[in-house]
Amino acid sequence: MKKINLKKTKDDTFWLRVLSVFIAIILWFYVNSIINPIKKKELIVPIRYNISTLPKGLVMKEPDAREVRIVVSGTQDELSKIDEKNIQAVVDFSEVRQTGEIRLPININNPYHRINIESVYPKNVMVNIDNLVTIQKDVTVEIDGNPKKGYIINGYQEEPNVISIKGAESDIKEISKCVAQLNLSLNDRPFKTSVPVKILDSRGKDITSLFDLSQKSIDVYVDILKTKQVPLTVKFKGKLEPNKVLSKIVLKPSTVNVAGKEEDINSLNEIVVGAIDTKMLQNVSTFQFDFNIPKNIKALDNVKRVVITIYTDSIVQKSITVPVEVRGLSSQYLVNLNPDKVMLKVKYYQSNQNSIDFSSFKAYVDVSNLTQGDYNLPLVLEKPNNIEDVEVSSSYIKVTITEKSQTQ
């Protein structure tokens, strides 16, 4: 029996290969269209202005456009791998040669080879190029608030007091002043602090962000002093005649307001304006003195001269006898005093003699709430206001209280 040898024809092999390719294409379309399809995604990317490429002496003013909208496409897997920080929108200035408004293209740097850029909006930006200018400007310190009550600001020192300001020429022209604004909060000691510098236009608007400053802040030392109202006094040389006294001394002004370091102010209790010889004194004498404030003390009043009026008088002494009264005695008691009169040695100014009412002297003991018995009570004296001194013959009174029924 003969064996039959079955062989595949070359045509059969060819069609098998064609079929395999066709199936592979079908699978590829399936995977890409169903499982991992092509999609689009919108990205918002900040625009990076590469001002380092600007020619020397030119500067870009604040741009209007800050970001660009980019539409990209790719498979779902590839889109998921995108980090927006890696896609850059860059404006280059290497071709700029003049000032004014210039339209420049936005260049997109895409590091993802399997991601396509479909659209960019905007594609161009309008930038304003100006001359780069540097000026010197004085810094003005503005102090807001107050130190603690009883203290004043004696002054301040800033360092530095001049700074360099670099920016667009048109912006530089808008500068009105350069300030360092310092806020006080009930300070009572000198202090040093760092204060930010601000650039203001004529309307008071803060335009600091438009410029590069040589100093973004300055050091300010504030001197704070303690205040005090100090009495003015006068000294006397020599002694007055016997029975003569200084009845009144009037200084105009009588006090001055001063300021100084805390330790100096605390130790200052008076300011002596001068010395007067008692031999020069009459009944009424007037003197003028120019005086100086002690070293390290600052005068707050514009006062350098004081007028002093001095009144002298003679002391007169007179003896009078005054009965001792009893006050507060209950109606059921009787009282016996020992002594029942006291001698008063009264001293007063001779100039007041005619105005003194000697009958207004009263001496009494207070027996309120006391019952029968023996007591040694203090004497209470009432006297006119224009009496300088009184000596009493007896400061205590022996008091005996008895009931009325026992004496009847």
Automatic annotation (TrEMBL):
Organism listed in the record: Caldicellulosiruptor naganoensis
Identification of the protein by name: CdaR family protein
Highest taxon of the lineage: Bacteria
Key words of the record: Membrane, Transmembrane, Transmembrane helix
InterPro entries in the cross-refs: c-di-AMP_regulator, YbbR
Spans traversing the lipid bilayer: 12-31
